[in-house]
Amino acid sequence: MRPLTKAVIVGGGVAFVGWVGWGIYSTWKAKSVPYEQLRTLNGGEIRHYPQTIRVETTASNQRIAFRQLFRYISGANQGNESISMTAPVETQNGEAISMTTPVRSEATETDADTVRMAFYLPSEYSPETAPEPTESDVTLVTEPQKTVAVDQFSWYAPEPRVARRTRKLLSTLEREGIEPAGDPYLLRYNAPWTPPFMRQNEVAVDVVEED
């Protein structure tokens, strides 16, 4: 084997190991919204979530929406509080906050070409203590406690695949006699640079509270 070829192979292997290592680290460091699993359902789950706080925006595409929310967690809020995607970071004019997964996205009801995206804040935040956004197109939303049905899948989440998983989830709910209480949405649990085979995604829909 030629030295150059060997160097390329070794370098690629090191890069791959580093990529996987970063995926493990970022997934381990990220907090998740707490919930109670009520039961399993055809490869998915029915869950009960407590009250949560999310920061939300709408934009013409997911990249723009993500950037708007990223500015908020980077300090574009009244407390100048910095929120890391994967771990707490040191700040000068406020406390360090760990961002909570998943990231939520969905098409808006008024415009199918517009996406609504939200980041969930850690559970220690309340409507009174969550830092207010300084940009007009970013808002805080308080979600009351709710029951949610989810269908889990890995790898990337392109629109056709999300549509198939959504149809599966809705068909399962219809077969089980469970009534949706809103429109489906997508939940993603990993940073954008996480290896695809390590990614966790879910299509979800709020449902009528089970007895």
From TrEMBL:
Among Gene3D superfamilies, the record links this protein to: Regulatory factor, effector binding domain (3.20.80.10)
Fetch the InterPro entries from UniProt: Reg_factor_effector_dom_sf, SOUL_heme-bd
Query: Which domain of life does the protein's organism represent?
Result: Archaea
- Alphabetical keyword list: Membrane, Transmembrane, Transmembrane helix
Can you tell me where the transmembrane regions are? 7-28
Known Pfam families for this protein?
SOUL
Q: What is this protein called?
A: Heme-binding protein
Q: Please report the organism this UniProt entry assigns to the protein.
A: Natronosalvus rutilus
